[in-house]
Amino acid sequence: xxxxxxxxxxxxxxxxxxxxxxxLPRPGATILGGEFYQAAGGKGANQAIAAARAATAPVLxxxxxxxxxxxxxxxxxxxxxxxxxxxVRVISGAHSGVALILVDERGENMxxxxxxxxxxxxxxxxxxVPDEVFASAKVFLTSLxxxxxxxxxxxxxxxxxxxxxxxxxxxxxxxxxxxxxxxxVDVLTPNEHEAAALTGVELSSNDAVxxxxxxxxxxxxxxxxxxxxxxxxxxxxxxxxxxxxxxxxAVDATAxxxxxxxxxxxxxxEGSSLAAAARWAGCAAALAVTRRGAQPSLPHxxxxxxxAARRSGR
Length: 314
Description:
This protein is about 35% helix and about 20% strand. α6 crosses α7. The protein has a domain of about 220 residues: 3-Layer(aba) Sandwich (UDP-N-acetylmuramoyl-L-alanine:D-glutamate ligase), CATH 3.40.1190. The N and C termini lie far apart (about 40 Å). A hairpin with a 5-residue loop joins β11 and β12. The protein is an alpha/beta fold. The strands form 2 sheets. The protein has a 9-stranded mixed β-sheet, with helices on both faces. A 4-stranded mixed β-sheet has the order 3-2-6-7. The chain is globular and about 45 Å long.
């Protein structure tokens, strides 16, 4: 495998334990679910695999796993995806991350994560990646399921090497507002819930969505994409570009955001404009919600290209 990579992804790797049920329970309620299945997940791993499937050049993943059955399964999955996992650390005595996921009949979900080894990912893990790998890369993508100091360190090193930095602020953590993280981010990609949590703006209308994006820009980020689920997304640079969602029959929205971010990174590594990359990434997200599971739902490049071509020819 080449020592160089076009995209570097720093993030979590989990095993998803999923129960499908007619509806999502209210606090304190017990409901009878239906089908159960296990799938590989974690925002970092999902985004890395989404990028690897969507890209034409190598993708490197930096993460931490426990020395357990879930970790071994995850590593085998990375190898099958031709994902460069040389710098995924296996930690003795730690359990791999696990996510408990409920999915209702509309494809909406609730997720709780036991981070395990993900929370032991450290700046030293990033130091293990050689300078020549960073020097050859074009895009650095990360999220917030690993320790904030590690995310900050990764962003700083990526910025030093001139990479485009993308932060998917999920789960939302207002600590990034008061840290040095945002000044190191080129593109921020919150969903509407995360944008509301970070800004305090209630996103009750398109005007409110745009206002939240402008608040985020006032914190030093030049480019913001707010993803809005079935309502599409808005790309905010100097001007705002509204992108309609592709209409599909949703089955499971668990990995929609990860599909979007991975595909976005792939397109930006190829030099696409932010609006064009977001439109293509929206096609990837639309395909992902039509399938069950996190990583099993992530589309390959040819699928995204074909889907985008069909939609543009309507």
